[in-house]
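the two lines:
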Amino acid sequence: MSRPAMQSVIARPLPPLPELDALQERLPPARSLWTDARRRFLRNHAAAAGLALLALVLLACLLGPMLSPYPFDEPDFGLMQAPPDAATRHWFGTDYIGRDLFIRTLLGGRVSLMVGALGALVAVVLGTLYGATAGYAGGRTDSVMMRALEVLGSFPVVFLVILLMTFFGRSLWLIFVAIGAASWLDVARIVRGQTLSLRRREFIDAAIVGGVRPSRIVLRHIVPNVLGLVIIYATLLVPQMILFESFLSYLGLGVQEPMTSWGALLEQGAKSLENSPWELLFPAGFLVTTLFAFNFVGDGLRDALDPRSR
Amino acid sequence: MLRFLLRRILFEAIPTLLVLVTLTFFLIRVAPGGPFSAEVNVPPEVLAAVQAKYRLDQPLLQQYLAYLGDLLHGDFGPSLKYKDFSVNDLLRAALPVSLQIGLFAFVIAVVLGVAAGLIAAVRQNGWLDHAVMGVAVLGVVIPNFVLAPVLTLVFAVWLKVLPAGGWEGGRPLMMVLPVAVLCLHYLGVIARITRSSMIEVLASSFIRTARAKGLPRGYILRRHALRPALLPVLSYLGPALVGILTGSIVVETFFGLPGLGQLFVNGALNRDYALVLALTLLVGVLTVVFNTLVDLLYGWIDPRMRFK
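prediction for all of em together
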């Protein structure tokens, strides 16, 4: 059948069905997948509260530093380890060389959140491309690629990242890459699984018949279809990334002075725990709140978007 | 079973470890800086002599092959920073420390985690369930480097009931805080996994059948529900062990314990090639061995999985 002929078959309008129209009027108004998901998400109180908290933390980190009269990196040797005090406008107290902790905590939050988001982005992009390619290629390519993943999976990744950080200087960029590269394996595995089932669908056959190049099929047809799943996973990945960065900074291998992050602040706070517990407690509170919020949002998103939970 | 083990070692363990050694070896060698670059103004001939002693003057490939040869004899070579100590000596001193707190933490996490999860599942939506799961979420979310200083603040600084750090040859009181910090996260995760899998199992039809036959509740839980409910926990044990090994880095640095984690951080900072390589490899071996063990356990609990 030639192409125009085929189109005319497809485009032929259906005969009118009065019963169907009547039926449709009695149904509730149609809701899209996303409206549905939003409704389910907001009905989950923990998830909605998590989202609100997250917005609050983000807002505080973005705008909060403007409220403080102090710069983040200027020591004040007259006011070392001063407790929180509204009169001096050191709302969170000062650290061991008299720097204002309010602004340091919030600026550190910017760094932590940014590393979390960018690290998750690196992991998601890498994992999605790898998984989709392996799943779409199938056969021997797939099994070799999965084998490589298994070998990488039993690497002591954290140890390698620490090596990387100590031996190649401690730039922020290296942190993104190292952290992201360390956690793309799970994304790749999930995406591959989805791709395997997508590959058998008709629209992929149609694309192949239409002469679309394999790379384009992966990018334009497979990847958009796994995106929902990937977004859920990314939400759960961000707190892991924040944790990882904090872990590195805690060991002194992450963000370097005078810049700071929650992990770096915690490390400092842990050292002067007896004299000035606020140095520990404020960053710890922010970090734990953020982690909690992300966990609830991630769980809520999963419940809202997972078709199996309907 | 022997065939399974053999295949596992030949096609999985050995390639993985080989890639790991190779990657780590070349990674740390191409990095700028060396183990002796920190020392002040050493005469060149002395430096050359030192480098010759540690084979650092030879071509990289030759060093690599020599290292592999030594490894086959179980020799990790001399430490580059702790003079007069071989890496084997250092490991022998540090391993028991890490092993002790790691094993304690692991066992406590598994036993208490499974127990808490089972209780929560059996009393689903009761107050006990909510209480247990509330604590579990705390354990899951709070990272160990927050937990360690906060617990120290409470128990050592404010209440003064536990020491804030140190090892003293492994006195039990010294181990309480490190073990607690190390295990709490895994306890929480295991409790959550156990709870959800037990709830799923209890809702399945074979449990309904058992109940319909009039079997007592305790018997059903023990003989019918427990095994399938434990499977997901089992597959988490591998990651849990790796996590505990990693977590010991923070815990050992914070509490000042002379274990592997601290050795690793110091080794990396000092560019102690041999030490760092050995530790990475050791963790790799432990991971592979443990994953194999978990697979064997899987077969033992679930006959369908046996030695495929």
